[in-house]
Structures are given as structure tokens and as C-alpha cells.
């Protein structure tokens, strides 16, 4: 059986490797549709609230109103320097790869799996017109070959 749960968060990011508008620092309302494989053991399977109790606070703490940033993006060093000079603190979600929606899907799939849930697939909406469907097969393939995340460099996501 599949249970579908939806979550959202707001975050800034840019894709420093692109030469178009996506290079600008900008924000999205990221929408998640989680498809969980669950066992039916009686009248109920996993309670909807059991998903929410782990996933919602995690997204609030690590993603919401934060900034997704590639560790190698020069802007990251600049913003860290700002933190050091002013004492101000930003919420960074640091990737060891570009902050594409594909890499975000890999990271979230890994983190939600780590919480003890079994995802069949994860849809991530970046804009009104752009949504990706990231499957368990995609996740297995990305884990087998982390260079898929970076387009060559052997390292994976995140902190
Ligand atoms: N395969 C991917 N393509 C793009 C990604 C990505 O992560 N993976 N990201 C972007 C940009 O970050 C961008 O913010 C989204 O771009 P786009 O869909 O073009 O934005 P809009 O919907 O605002 O574009 P309009 O067509 O003008 O409405 C780009 N591509």
C-alpha cells in the first residue's frame, strides 16, 4: 500500500554553474509529495501523524527559510565571511554538489529514509511548471555512483 504525504518549505538557492537566470540568487516554495510504502497490519498502517512528527520539524530546522548552497560556490565563502564579521547566522543547507532539484531529491530521499520510512518515490516541485519524480531506482543508482550528482567529481551531498 502507498500513503501519499505532502510537505513544503521555502528556500533560497542558485545554480552557479549555469549561465542563465538560475545563476541569480532566488527563492522557491519547494513542494514535496512523498509516496511511502507501508504494511497494513490491521485497520491502520502507519499513522499519518507519524510521518508528520518526524518530517515537518526536520524540514523546519534544516530547510525552511534557509539557503541551499553548493560548498564549492564562492558565494558560500562570502556569506560565511559575513557571518564571521557580523555574528549574524544564516540557515545553510550545504550540498557537495550543485543545488539542482535532482540533487535536492536525492538528499531528501536519503534523509527521509534515514528517519525509518520507505519511500517508493518522491516528487519535488521547484516552480509552478516544473516537478521531478524521483524513484527508488533513481536513488539506488545515485548511491551506487555518487558522481552522477556532480557530473564527475566523486563526492555526495550534504550537511
Ligand atoms: N533539470 C533541471 N532544470 C532546471 C533546474 C533544475 O534544478 N533541474 N533548475 C532551474 C532553476 O533553478 C529555476 O529556478 C527553475 O527554472 P524554470 O523552470 O525555467 O523557471 P520558471 O518556471 O520561472 O520559468 P518560466 O518558464 O519562465 O516560467 C532551471 N532548470
Task: Put the structure in a nutshell.
InterPro entries: 6-PTP_synth/QueD, 6-PTP_synth/QueD_sf. The chain has helices spanning 48-62, 74-86, 101-114, 136-144, 147-150; strands spanning 2-13, 26-37, 66-70, 92-95, 119-127, 130-135.
Describe it.
This protein is α/β, with parallel strands linked by helices and 159 residues long. It has helices at residues 48-62, 74-86, 101-114, 136-144, 147-150; strands at residues 2-13, 26-37, 66-70, 92-95, 119-127, 130-135. It has one domain (2-150): Tetrahydropterin Synthase, Chain A (2-Layer Sandwich), CATH 3.30.479. The chain has five helices and six strands, in the order ββαβαβαββαα. The longest helix is centred in the middle third of the chain and has 15 residues, at 48-62. Bound molecules: ligand LPXRUNBV. Ligand LPXRUNBV binds at residues 15, 22, 26, 100-102, 126-127, 129-130.
